[in-house]
Amino acid sequence: MTEPTKFDERYLKGIEYFNEFEFFEAHEVWEDLWQDFHGHGRTFYQGLIQVAVCLHHFVNGNIRGARKLYNSSTKYLSEYGDLYEGLDLVKFIGDLTTCCQEILDSTEEYPKIEINADLIPEIHLS
Predict the structure, then answer these.
(1) What is the SS3 assignment for 44?
(2) 66 and 33 Cβ atoms separated by less than 8 Å
(3) How far is residue 14's CA from residue 33's CA, in Å, rounded to a whole number?
(4) DSSP-assigned letters across all residues of 53-100
(5) How far apart (Å, rounded) are the C-alpha atoms in residues 58 and 70?
(6) What CATH number does residue 113 fall under?
(7) What is the rounded CA–CA span in Å between residue 1 and residue 5?
(8) How many domains does the chain have?
(9) 3-class DSSP state for residue 125?
(10) Residue of 115, 13, 100, 101 whose CA lies nearest to 51
């Protein structure tokens, strides 16, 4: 029998904040983890940080910032395959894309788009 994976408490706390739509707080906790982390997986945490900031910007109407961070965050996370650190990245990136689709489709420099809270992705580990 294999031992269950032990996740860093900061990773789990960031997920808790994220799922409560406390994106700035999630970013802060994950950034602390990212700064201490060296080696393979570091850019995974960078991607999560950028997702949190993307959604923070989106909620606060900074659509240009949200769009920019969507693009960089999904690039980082896509490097980790289908599943990493218990996170189904295919589903998570797909859900994030659905949430951000309107800002991705907009050609306006400063569009007035409001986030649909029902489309905000949640993180559930497997």
Answers:
(1) helix
(2) no
(3) 10
(4) HHHHHHHTT-HHHHHHHHHHHHHHHHTT-SEETTEEHHHHHHHHHHHH
(5) 10
(6) 1.10.3450.10
(7) 12
(8) 1
(9) strand
(10) 100
Positive/negative CA dihedral, 108, 111, 117, 123: positive
* Token reading at 53: 């900031």
Which domain covers residue 16, as residue numbers?
A: 9-119
Note the pTM of the prediction, 2 decimals: 0.94
Q: Is residue 93 part of a domain?
A: yes
Strand partners, 88: 83
Give the Cα separation of 91 and 101 in Å (integer).
15
pLDDT at residue 1 above 60? no
Let me know if residue 35 belongs to a domain: yes
Q: What are phi and psi of 83, to 5 degrees?
A: -140, 130
* 125 is a domain residue: no
Cβ contacts of residue 94 below 8 Å, gap of 6+? Answer: none
What does the pLDDT look like over 71-110, one tens digit per residue? 999 999 999 999 999 999 999 999 999 999 999 999 988 8
- Tokens 């408490």 found at: 9
**Residue 49, CA atoms < 13 Å, CB-side half-sphere:** 15
